[in-house]
Amino acid sequence: MNESIKTTALFALVALLIIGTGLFQSWNAALGILNMGLISAVMALGVNLQWGFAGLFNVGVMGFVALGGLATVLISMPPVPEAWAAGGLRIWAALGLGAATLAIVIMVRKKMAEGLPRAALTAVLLIGGFVLYRSMFDPARDAIEAVNPALQGYLGGMNLPVLLAWPAGGLLAAGAAWVIGKTALGLRSDYLAIATLGIAEIIIAIMKNEDWLARGVKNINGLPRPLPYEIDLQADPAFVERAASFGLDPVTASTLYVKAGYGLLFAAVLLVILFLMQRSLHSPWGRMMRAIRDNEVAARAMGKDVTKRHLQIFILGSAICGIAGAMMTTLDGQLTPSSYQPLRFTFLIWVMVIVGGSGNNFGAILGGFIIWFLWVQVEPFGRWLMELITSGMEPGSTLRDHLLASAAHMRLLSMGLIMLLMLRFSPRGLLPEK
Amino acid sequence: MDILNALVTLANFVLVPALAYGSQLAIGALGVTLIYGILRFSNFAHGDTMAFGTMVTVLVTWGLQAAGVSLGPLPTALLAMPVGIAATALLVLGTDRIVYRFYREQKAKPVILVIVSMGVMFVMNGLVRFIIGPNDQNFTDGERFIISARDFKNMTGLEEGLAIKTSQGITVVTAIIVVALLFWFLNRTRTGKSMRAYSDNEDLALLSGINPERVVAVTWIIVAALATVAGVLYGIDKSFKPFTYFQLLLPIFAAAIVGGLGSPLGAIAGGFVIAFSEVTITYAWKKVAAYMLPESLAPDGLMQMLAVDYKFAVSFVILVIVLLFRPTGLFKGKSV
Amino acid sequence: MIGGYGRGADILNGVTLDVELGEIAVIVGPNGAGKSTAMKAVFGMLNIHTGSVVFDGEDITRLSPQARVAKGMGFVPQTHNIFASMSVEENLEMGAFLRRDDYRDTMAQVYDLFPILKEKRHQHAGELSGGQRQQVAVGRALMTKPKLLMLDEPTAGVSPIVMDELFDRIIEVARTGISILMVEQNARQALEIAHKGYVLVQGANGYTGSGKELLANPDVRKSFLGG
Question: Which residues form a coiled coil (chain B) (predicted)?
Answer without folding.
Answer: none
